[in-house]
Amino acid sequence: MKELIGSPGTLSGLTLRITQCAFAASSIALMVSASDFSTYTAFCYLIASMGLQLLWSFGLACLDIYALRRKRDLHNPVLVSLFVVGDWVTAMLSLAAACSSAGVIVLYARDLGFCKPQSHTPCKQYEISIILAFITWLLIAMSSHVMFWILASF
């Protein structure tokens, strides 16, 4: 079977999972450090979604480290099926959270004018956190695409 970039148990797969963790953690840290984020439901959903993504990616990164150290093959149909479902679920949740948060920030910045310079709303922190969430989703989409093709090759 051909090795795909980002497949489980490889160095590229480990790198993909670690970058997913890093971007999800950065998104969480930036959003949590902003004042009054908890008053907006979409931002709380973003925190929850990125937290779930962080846990999922961290778990799979640990599994990749184990497979690399023990030289194990993770291309088992049952394992890959689990990876596909987990990646697709977290990808959908992350995309929904990032889109809903982006919608809220567009509403507040462009339509309601809450993000004016004299306002005390930390809109730039919200925007950067949302951008990091979209980057996280892009990495998850790449991972889920690879997993789907590995599953299809069985």
Describe this protein's structure.
By secondary structure, the protein is mainly alpha-helical. It is built from four helices and no strands. It has helices at 11-33, 41-70, 77-111, 123-152. The chain starts with 10 loop residues before the first helix and ends with a helix. This is CASP-like protein.
Jot down its keywords.
single chain, 154 residues, mainly alpha, 4 helices
- Oligomeric nature of the chains: single chain
The largest pleated sheet is described as: none
Strand content: under 5%
SSE string, helix = H, strand = E?
HHHH
End-to-end Cα distance, whole Å, is 9 Å
- What is the structural class? mainly alpha
Mean pLDDT: 92
Radius of gyration: 18 Å
Helix content: over 70%
Could you give the topology of this structure?
Blueprint: H1 11-33, H2 41-70, H3 77-111, H4 123-152
Helix pairs in contact: 1-2, 1-4, 2-3, 3-4
Structure described in brief:
The protein is mainly alpha-helical and 154 residues long. It has helices spanning 11-33, 41-70, 77-111, 123-152. Homodimer and heterodimers.
